[in-house]
């Protein structure tokens, strides 16, 4: 069972990045997949999540309208499209899969937004 997060990098303010969370060893459905981020010196913060069974999504208020989460069940991958990035979006972004009492985390990918 493994989650592989990728797609982070350095981008200028206003730019875009697309993060990927690839699952191996288990199928997307029925897990919910979430993105969580942690900036230096700050607590982890929920970003977005998606139900891979019905496709319902949720976003933190500060990400609404800028971030879009999506899934590709055939590729066993969840994406986080991040537009209009701001310096305060700088953080390590983690993906996690959860269902009932099962909870798996990926290793994180660094996103750095320069002003």
Describe this structure in words.
The protein has 115 residues and is an all-beta fold. Helices cover 0% and strands 57% of the residues. Strand 4 and strand 5 (45-51) form a beta hairpin. 31% of the residues are buried. The mean pLDDT is 95.
Quick recap of the structure?
With about 120 residues, the chain is mostly beta strands. Helices cover about 0% and strands about 55% of the residues.
Overall shape: it is globular
Structural class: mainly beta
**Strand residue percentage:** over 45%
Distance, first to last CA: 38 Å
Radius of gyration: 13 Å
Mean pLDDT: 95
Order of helices and strands: EEEEEEEEEEE
Tally the beta strands: 11
The biggest sheet, with number of strands, parallel, antiparallel or mixed sense and barrel status, is: 7 strands, mixed
Figure out the total of helices: 0
Low-confidence stretches: none
Helix percentage: under 10%
